[in-house]
Model the fold of this input.
Amino acid sequence: MGGRLNIIIVPDDGGEPRRLRLSTFWLKTALWFAGFLVLAIIAGILSYSSLVRRALDYDRLASENSQLSIENKRIISVAREVDQSRRILAQIIRSLGGHLEVGRSSSSDTTLKAGVALSEVDYADFLLEGDSYAVERIMAYSMPTCMPANGFISQEFFLDYLFPERSHRGIDIAGKTGVPIVAAAAGRVTFSGWTPHFGNCLILAHRNGYMTFYGHNLENLKLVQDEVRRGEPIALLGSSGRSSAPHLHFEIWKDGVPVDPLEFVQQVETAKTAGL
Done:
């Protein structure tokens, strides 16, 4: 049989003592239960603290993953833009027979090695030995400074480095269907054909690393390898491809990099100055 624990309680007022008899089995059971309860409470507190830390870490990781996802999408978009530019440049190089060098500045006539974009005869009137003004005239003649179409600027050039897909790498010149599109500078046609986005489009290569792009044309008037003079009609303004109204999408590239055409072309008219 289990032992018993006797507890005698003696009142201070001299009253009759009281005796309590407790079974040692139940006393030990109570102590074990109390100890287990204390351990369970401590374990619960530790587990709760761990869960709180994990929840905080989860929120932090979720925020970092969200930022990484945004960065990843941006990197993928940039990679697609670069890949698309490379494909376009590769097509231009093939159209020139593999003789187009882009991506670096050229102080001499090395932009087009075999079969230069312009005939030397085009500059015969300007070549005066020792005349610096003649050299400046040659440079200006090869730069795309001629307004390619009559109309007004409906959308200007801008680059969005965070979201490249929002960039507009040229200017839109709104005009009447069928008006002539002229070459912004003397050059050679390196592409003349159809693309899903720009419809009928045409690309010219010029000296000193310049290239010009003409998109959404109603009709292209020139073929690949054709040499054109500054101001010569090369296409008709239209609304082919993904276009909501007749306009010319015009781009200027220097050494493989898009630049703002409004810094080059002359006689610019915007929608505001046109009174629209």
About this structure: The two ends are 109 Å apart (CA to CA). The chain is about 30% helix and 25% strand. The longest strand covers residues 210-220.
